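WARN retry 2 of 3 for item q-0093 after timeout on previous attempt; input resubmitted unchanged.
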Amino acid sequence: MRSTTRAFAAMDGMEHRLCRWIHRAGHCRPMRSLFSVVGRLGDGMIWYLLLLYLPMAEGKNGLVAAISMAFGALFGLLVYKTLKTFLVRERPFISYPDIHCLSAPLDRYSFPSGHTLHAVFFAVVAVAWFPQLGPLLYGFAAMIALSRPVLGLHYPTDVVVGGLIGWALALFVLLLVPPHAVM
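OK item q-0093 returned
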């Protein structure tokens, strides 16, 4: 057994109770429906719409922000796909029969959460450029993060690490292209 697989097996056991507790919300039909919709929007659709909206609503600054977010998101995709390929953490619904898959996953492995990575990344970068979007985007990013264990797709540490990677990537992109660099 690979050392990362053993490490994840130990973490999974410690997180199982918390994961099961969060997942209980998905047993309530309205909650499951809400988090399924949030999760599907987090597949990318909401971020594609944001990238289209910003240039139309905010002009040149919106275009620069959208381009920097698009390149950052592509890099984020590369990072999380690479990590998932090498770290191969099985999803909770695969490892534990008391956790059910309530929404189809986009890929096989769990660590880190790409949905959370991108939600945090887009929220942090967009709000740095356009602070008025803060309540909406931060709230939506939190809902996406919560949706992952509720739907049985991720462990809490998948979500936390995905969020940290998204935050770090956002800071890097903001260093390269600071808000309002173009007026």
